[in-house]
Amino acid sequence: MTSTKIITKFILLNSKGENDIIDITNNIKRILLESQLKNGILTLFVVGSTAAITTIEYEQGLQRDFPSMLERIAPKGIEYEHDNTWHDGNGHAHVRASLIGPSLTIPFINGETSLGTWQQIVFVEMDTKSRKRKIVVQLIGND
Q1: Where are the domains of the chain?
Q2: pLDDT tens per residue across span 24-49
Q3: Which among 31, 25, 89, 30 has a CA at the least distance from the CA of 59?
Q4: Which conformational region is residue 115 in: left (phi greater than 0), alpha (psi within -120 to 50 degrees), or beta?
Q5: Which residues does 110 contact at the CB level (< 8 Å), separation at least 6?
Q6: Taking every pair of C-alpha atoms in the chain, what is the biggest distance, in angstroms?
Q7: What's the CA gap between 35 and 56, in Å, rounded?
Q8: Taken in order 79, 83, 89, 90, is the CA torsion positive or negative?
Q9: What's the CATH fold of domain 5-142?
Q10: Three-state DSSP string of the chain
Q11: CB of 126 within 8 A of CB of 52?
């Protein structure tokens, strides 16, 4: 009889600042392998309100397209009430991060993530300066 286990790990990153996209797929796969869990779900959550996690095909074209898309949706050059209140110039970063989201849930089956062939897990920095970031990785499953 198998029992359900919960395992929590952390990934620590140093971002270069706005539009830094970091592929964390191998980090996640290593954590899953070390857990020895076979079936369940893993959840990723970035701590902070100006960063996000998503999936993307991690290639040069999309690494340029993604920030361009964000600029069209939540441009830097417009007024944000956040900036009027805090005068820190990162209102657009908060809006962008909330659109993409701070978390992601991925099923795993037979010890493998359910990612597609061209699908990688990425951390996206939205803030205007480099940051130290923590990503919580929680696995819930059985062995």
Answers
A1: 5-142
A2: 999 999 999 999 999 999 999 999 99
A3: 25
A4: beta
A5: 38, 39
A6: 58
A7: 25
A8: negative
A9: Jelly Rolls (2.60.120)
A10: CCCCEEEEEEEEEECCCCCCEEECHHHHHHHHHHHCCCEEEEEEEECCCCEEEEEECCCHHHHHHHHHHHHHHCCCCCCCHHHHHHCCCCHHHHHHHHHHCCEEEEEEECCEECCCCCCEEEEEECCCCCCEEEEEEEEEEEC
A11: yes
Reading the block at residue 63, the tokens are: 């690494």
Q: Is the pTM of this model over 0.85?
A: yes
Tokens 């954590």, located at residue? 31
- Gap between the Cα atoms of 124 and 122, Å rounded: 6
Structure tokens at 51: 């960063």
Structure tokens at 46: 């970035």
**Cβ neighbours for 112, distance < 8 A, ≥ 6 positions apart:** 32
Tens-place pLDDT, residues 112-139: 999 999 999 999 999 999 999 999 999 9
